[in-house]
Queue: 3 jobs
Job 1
Amino acid sequence: MPLTSFSYDSQHTQEFNDSALRYYRSPPPNAQLGYGYEHWIRRPEERSRVDSLLKAVDRVTEGQHKKMNLAEVGVVAWRGVVTRLLTAPYEDREGWEMNVMFINGTLYLEEHRTETQIMEKNNIKPQHRKMMYYGYAFESYCTTEHSRPAASNQSDRSSHNSDASGWGGHVDTNIQWCSVVKTKLGDTKFIIGGEVDCSDGQYKGTTDTFVELKTSMAIRGAADEEKFERKLLKFYFQSFLLGVPKIIVGFRTPSGQLTTTQSFQTMQIPRMLREKSGHKAHKSNATPWDPSMCLAWCHQFLTYLKQTVVQDSDDDPSHQKDSVKEEVNRGHSPNSTTVWRVSFVPREGARVVKLDKSEVEEVVNGEDRVGFIPRWYWDKVNSATHTSHQSSVRSSSAAVQPAQGAVGGWRI
């Protein structure tokens, strides 16, 4: 369920309006996805802060825009972080890290990036940079600034005085439109924020018209097909988390020419893959992923994570006062400045450690923060009274491995 939305302008300034929202239109046949590359304004990679998401959280949990109580929220995170958690059981290539803080019974999650990683992302090889651009160019071809009737999504392709038919304007990755939604896994409520590529028709405050745009190499054989089916796992959960009902994939050549597009209904993707695997002759070609396993693993891990941070707070000598221990036992956070680090290693699993003082200072990075939480938000949540908050801590084994079966809440 959507809670609010906001835009980033060309200076990447956050504004609580829909000025950056784009609308879907069909891309022209054989579009050249390398067009406009030299005009690409690429926002530099930086630390993945949660500041703008917290401004949205504050907006929907306080004052005239209030839509829910913060005391009810178990997890606050960007969509990308939750996607990493959900897809971890099938991740066999890239590890990741995230920072965690526990405030008033709510887990706040932030992707952790080292300075070396940020530098590498800002200095990628030209070939990889070009392939990254193809995805943004596809978004430009597929979107326009103006809403169109649902029955006709063909836009006037003479705009922008461009030589490329259907070009929607030069790419500026500072500009984004984001939706903030609430959802639930088991008994844990989430507030999740993430970028939405466009709306197919007039946006009316619901997710029904949301569209996710993706590109992939044209499928030339069985190996390419299997690779694409594995990619659908990330496509699926990215859209699933924000309630995006439709994913449109543009298939391209290695040189960046669009060959065809295909539309996928998000909620039908798991069934589509199951039915497809049922027609395959070899067991080795079974369904490449099971969303139920992903949901179960995520639920199990978050239960373990909350249990760990609460227990750690209970054992901390600085939090041994009876009144604080009582709060911990009730599921409330003592609101220490403690920061935890979750590290995931493919084929091994995830571990949780508490950061020492020097590691926390590295997270703060000389900014006005408590851990990774901006000072203004920290002060606000600590000055508020959350007397009604109830945070359940389920029992969990220390082993955080893929679990069997789905949990209630999120629907497959």
Note: Residues 155-162, 318-334, 385-399, 406-412 have pLDDT under 50 and may be disordered.
Job 2
Amino acid sequence: MLGHPDDPRGIVLPLDGRPGGPDAAAPDRNGGPARNGGQGHGDRQARPGLPPGPALLLSWHAAGPAEADRDWGTTLSASSELARRLARPGNGRGPERGLTYRLTLPEAFGAEPLLRLTGAESAPAHSGPSALLPVGLPGSGPAPGADLGLLALTLATEIATSGTQHRVLDELTTAVGELAPSCGMRLDSRLRAAEESLRTAQTELAEHGAVTSSAGLDTAVANLSVLRHQTHAWIAGWERVVTTADAAGTPGIGLRDQLGEVGKLGWAGFPGAVHAAYQALVLDARRILLTAADDLLRSPNRSLPALRPLVESDLAGRAADVGRLHRLLTRLSVLPLTVRKRSGGMMPNLIADQAAANARTQALFTRMANALRPPAWPGHVVLEVRSLETGELQVLRPA
């Protein structure tokens, strides 16, 4: 299916059940269809034929040494599911070696809430292949690019979400260490186990095209369900505290005590609970997409748009919960904190200590809120994969 390294072409693969072939309208380089009567990339005239629809753009260029610094995840074998989907039909050697393949999807097919949450960045465009060739023959299959597109979508989304998750958690941990070092940040073992299970399951999906029971995903699903309900209870309790606080000024000691009463965590447990709440929500969102992709790959003749009804609503719910957490921290960061004076007055040094504690508390709320603020998402999905001389594949992070 793929050409020689010097072959100046790209390939478009329908994702929605349309056959390819000479009568199909050619999508443009961004993965979307060229308008009838309009021009696609490279001034390629759209041709009459089947109605346009979503398509995967697959292009390639010679791999460069700088790309070795962008390796992500474990190396995939030459016989992996991803390699098999990239290979030319009948070519047992897999994809052409020494190339970097770029797969561009025009949309996220239901994963948009998760990508907006992480603010995924797209890889830069490359000069190189410009002539686009629809691939496939009428009657050759319902969606020749669906499985490859699904693997690209799950990998690109996992790169974006895991990277953003780690950045946010690192920023939260740093903020607590600098502004509230007495607060504990112990990681729940269930979250650690879920993270490991998701990483293993993602590798199995790209390597074998299915997730096996050895990945431990069933246990992760059960634990994340419990943690999600716990997170909902925490957020609702914290929201009640903020709602009842005096917007003109509330004693800092009292606010910290009230936040600590939620879940009986104590103020020392509040930052760690925010850390755990965010992680549980994002891990569960990653789990939703991964399990749906596994189900779809096990169902032959399914188009990629069939993914949307399986994931969009649930992912939107998890993103909304993260949004609640971000709004909560933002409201806390602008709530005026006052010093509670005892009857008979207070020593000046005690007043100063309370004021300093309030300042650190508000700075902590601000740092935590800023950590949860995602950047903009460009609206499309890009994955780059390098084919090594050994025949193995290496997934790349965005440049």
Note: The longest helix spans residues 146-179.
Job 3
Amino acid sequence: MLVKNVGSILQMQSAQPYGRVSKNRNKIMAIDVHNLRSQFLHLLRTRRTPQVPLCVIPGKPVNDPLYQEFPKPIFSEVMASCPKEDIPNMKELLQEQNFYLTTEEGEQGRLPFLVLSMKETNKKKRPAIVFLHSTNKCKEWLRPLLQAYASRGYIAVAIDSRYHGERATNMTTYRDALISSWKKGDTMPFIYDTVWDLIKLADYLTEREDIDSSRIGITGESLGGMHAWFAAFADTRYSVVVPIIGVQGFRWAIEHDRWQGRVDSIKDVFEEAGSDLGKNEIDKEVVEKHKKLTSHDNIHQTDFYLTLIRIHEQVWDRIAPGLASQFDSPYTVPVIAPRPLLILNGEEDPRCPIAGLVIPMSSVRKACADADCPLNFKVIAQAGIGHQMTPLMVNEASNWFDRFLKV
């Protein structure tokens, strides 16, 4: 099995044309980190319901969690492959806690989260890791990872992201929220609203007597990987970061005709936007890119692509403002450095094309080198893998957390 790290990926890309690389890299190196983070936090506050005091109330285990997909997933061999300690009486020693954290007013302001840890007689503070699920799943789906990490001495935490799990009422809750965000522009269900919750979650975790507030990691798969990326950008209390199949360049994808995979993951909102903007189909097949075209066809193709770009820009700016501009990966991923950052992607992932990460990878490497900790950054693009989490990724994430959180 071939695994490429950041050095080989950059070498692979260096021989290929990459428009405006030097200009963009110079601009990125001049990022005002404090100002960028302040802008993002201000954006989060602009679409919030009135602020409320941080409040935690007990919850109950969810016996029949809601998954917004069919058929309902039952078991993940990939998550079950996570390294774990062999503890004979694991069930008796494993402690489960369910809570609701109030992050703002309203129904979506109640954050359900699950905490698994081993019962301990001493009062020693332990490292904690926040786990974030993928689209249409929920915190209960992550239980195999939580149990594995808990067995190894971590306090393992999982949440339901916005409009998922206990925060959903039916099979289309998340889809409906995305479309509503496009129509009304009053919420940010794609990534940002959950990042607000994760900032509030950090407030709670750092106050727990059993957690070492300097050792809180965060990871997630797909949508959860994006949540981990942006939460770590926004909040430095997440000290070790492992996004799995979640980091991409949104602007790069638009400019390099690699937008289809990501758009397909939330296709309904783009189709709704296309209809609203007078374009009935956001579908690449209406233009056969590689056929010989007449001059008239070439003009039509150009108009078609300009329309697609306009739709993409308007959708992202509506449901997640700045996602394809000032808060895109070339600007926000380097801000995570020099905190330990491991990016795990598939080399063939259509939703997170590895070629779109050349600039942010270079910037993070420089930031870590300048801070005299070059080993704090690594990218693994697993050969032959598309948009899927693999046992190798689970194992690499486990090793990364052990390396930087087990002190």
Note: The chain is about 40% helix and 15% strand.
